[in-house]
């Protein structure tokens, strides 16, 4: 991935500081490619890696990764055609049934995702969905709260990767199940907001099978010289389009076979 780098080390640090400031202050900024139109996907990951390095240095604990933009619905919604990955830390985790503050977010949206917890290390390249399933301890339902730091949720792939794939918060819950006891391809999901159904879909919407998204993630990690370590919590990507939330909203994500995940949003 480093072969396609166009940004200097100074530019990577500068853009990382810009993204970190927007995340910390919950303020929207223009997409990075307005100033750096030549930015590549490799440049985006260089900024994201610098952000991860800084957060870890500040005491955040990385707990896993997320695959993003892994369904046609998400790609169409956001106007991109390639999936992406981002890192997850302990500071982003919220308990099931909790009240989630929106005052430290710009314009949050929620997505229903299948999460995987790994029991063995996985290394690409050439990682397949079968490799992922063999290395999976269990799966559980999750809701990701994404929050692009770019004005109007308008961005391109290089910018959104630099912004850690819009990662903001996540909630795991429901019932943990062994992957081999389920048909992970055909799980139905219904998202309710304030008691109304606002989105529904089936897990095959995620690259045909959510384990394919995790394999893609492992192969991107390999290009960055990293592995997916045992114990990682990994989200496979939104099954439906993302739904905007504001203070006062309650969300219930109902997953076939995996139970439901609930939360509410407050000021
Ligand atoms: O998790 C995701 O699919 C989000 C990826 C970034 C795109 C967005 O902000 O919607
Ligand atoms: Mg997501």
Structure description:
By secondary structure, the chain is of the alpha+beta class. It has a domain of 184 residues: Alpha-Beta Complex (Fumarylacetoacetate hydrolase, domain 2). Helices cover 25% and strands 28% of the residues. The protein is built from six helices and twelve strands. The strands form two sheets. Strands 1, 2, 4, 5, 6, 9 and 10 form a seven-stranded mixed sheet that branches. A five-stranded mixed sheet has the order 3-12-11-7-8, with no helix packed on it. Strand 7 and strand 8 form a beta hairpin. Helix 1 packs across helix 2. The N and C termini lie far apart (40 Å).
Structural descriptors:
28% strand, five-stranded mixed β-sheet, 12 strands, binds hexanedioic acid, Fumarylacetoacetate hydrolase, domain 2, alpha+beta, seven-stranded mixed β-sheet
List the helices and strands and how they pair.
Blueprint: H1 9-25, H2 41-57, E1 62-68, H3 72-78, E2 84-89, E3 99-101, E4 109-118, H4 129-135, E5 136-146, H5 157-162, E6 167-172, E7 188-193, E8 196-202, H6 210-223, E9 233-235, E10 243-244, E11 250-255, E12 259-266
Parallel strand pairs: 1-9, 3-12
Antiparallel strand pairs: 1-2, 4-5, 4-9, 4-10, 5-6, 7-8, 7-11, 11-12
The structure holds hexanedioic acid and magnesium ion (MG).
The CATH superfamily of the domain at 62-147 and 169-266 appears as Fumarylacetoacetase-like, C-terminal domain
Shape: globular
CATH architectural label of the domain at 62-147 and 169-266: Alpha-Beta Complex
Structural class: alpha+beta
Low-pLDDT windows of residues: none
Please compute the radius of gyration using only Cα atoms: 17 Å
CATH topology of the domain at 62-147 and 169-266: Fumarylacetoacetate hydrolase, domain 2
The number of strands is 12
How many helices? The count is 6
Distance N to C terminus: 40 Å
């Amino acid at each position: 991935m480093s072969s396609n780098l166009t940004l200097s080390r100074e530019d990577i640090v500068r853009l990382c500081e810009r993204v970190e400031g927007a995340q910390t202050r919950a303020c929207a900024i223009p997409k990075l490619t307005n100033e750096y139109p030549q930015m590549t996907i490799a440049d985006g990951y260089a900024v994201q890696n610098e952000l991860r390095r800084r957060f870890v240095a500040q005491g955040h604990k990385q707990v896993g990764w997320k695959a993003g933009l892994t369904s046609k619905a998400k790609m169409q919604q956001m106007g991109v055609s390639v999936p992406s990955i981002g890192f997850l830390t302990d500071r982003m985790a919220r308990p099931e049934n909790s009240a989630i503050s929106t005052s430290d977010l710009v314009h949050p949206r929620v997505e229903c995702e299948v999460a995987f917890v790994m029991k063995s290390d996985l290394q690409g390249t050439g990682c397949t969905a079968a490799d992922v399933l063999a290395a999976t301890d269990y799966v559980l339902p999750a809701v990701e709260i994404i929050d692009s730091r770019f004005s109007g949720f308008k961005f391109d792939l290089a910018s959104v990767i630099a912004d850690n794939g819009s990662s903001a918060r996540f909630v795991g819950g429901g019932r943990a199940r062994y992957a081999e006891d389920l048909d992970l391809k055909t799980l139905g999901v219904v998202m309710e907001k304030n008691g109304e159904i606002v989105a529904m879909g089936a897990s095959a919407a995620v690259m045909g099978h959510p384990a394919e998204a995790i394999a893609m993630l492992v192969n991107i990690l390999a290009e960055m010289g990293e592995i997916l370590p045992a114990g990682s919590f990994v989200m496979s990507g939104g099954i439906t389009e993302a739904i905007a939330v504001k203070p006062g909203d309650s969300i219930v994500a109902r997953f076939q076979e995996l139970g439901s995940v609930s939360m509410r949003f407050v000021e």
